[in-house]
Amino acid sequence: LAVSPALLFMTYAGALRGYFQGRRRMVPIALSQILEAGGKFLFGLLFASWALSYYSRSVVAADAIFGLTLASFFATLSLYLCKRNYDRDEGHLALCCGAVSRHERKENLRKIGKLAFPITISASVMTLASSLDLFLVIRTLRRIGYSVAEANAAFGNYTALAVPLFNMPTVLILPIAYSVAPFVKRALTRNDPLCAGQAATRALSLAALLALPASFGLSLLAKPILSLLFSNADSVAMATPLLSVLALSVFPLALLTVTNSLLQAYGKLWFPIFAILAGIVT
Q1: What residue spans of 53-101 are helical by DSSP H?
Q2: Which candidate, 205, 194, 203, 208, places its Cα nearest to that of 264?
Q3: From CA 43, how far away is CA 255, in angstroms rounded?
Q4: CA angle, residues 169, 173, 178, in degrees to nearest 5
Q5: What is residue 128's predicted lDDT score, i.e. its pLDDT?
Q6: Which of 64, 128, 135, 192 could lock onto 187 through a cystine, CB 3.0 to 4.6 A?
């Protein structure tokens, strides 16, 4: 009940972020993400602190999660206001949109659906892979002799300690993937494949330059990094070998992230899905 309204806001916000990304205007996207992240923390903490004095633990948790919904609302509102200002500054865009015929609108919706469908499938496959990990890893640990508590603890250390640190370098890689796609698409639309190729090469080079030291650094320094961030010695000891191995995937994942974005810009929308499926099967 507390989190479900956020689905509406996140859907609308996703469309608006794509709108600005396509126009290479990243400031509204960054502003909305800062509001969303800060709002989750601030509102969640305030609502949970208030509810602690009056309600049961389950209600406190719901109040904390409602902070996510409220943060999503303000993030979406900021994007909407930015779009209104942008349309006012670029008044001809609004006039053009008003003059589009019904047939053209249907054609535009068909084109959007044709682009969005494989991208949606790709995101769904990644979510399915995460769900499969949950069932397969726990079941495999039980088969090799772990108790239910031990299996949950081992998988919990993996998801709560190793995976968040593994995901940290992607904070530097995702902006490269987001920003290069519209640039490459624009160059291809202008029939300038040389410019598109140069942009793709630079994006991949920058991603490799950032991801390679992050990958080896996390792998070699897994224990001191985990010990610095987490105080439970048993959890750190269990998560250290996991992070050491998992961190080696940072580099190929960075290249995969940028490559998938480039493939979408080049119109090869199904290639990322095949790549993800191959990774899941492997």
Answers
A1: 57-89, 91-98
A2: 203
A3: 36
A4: 150
A5: 77
A6: 192
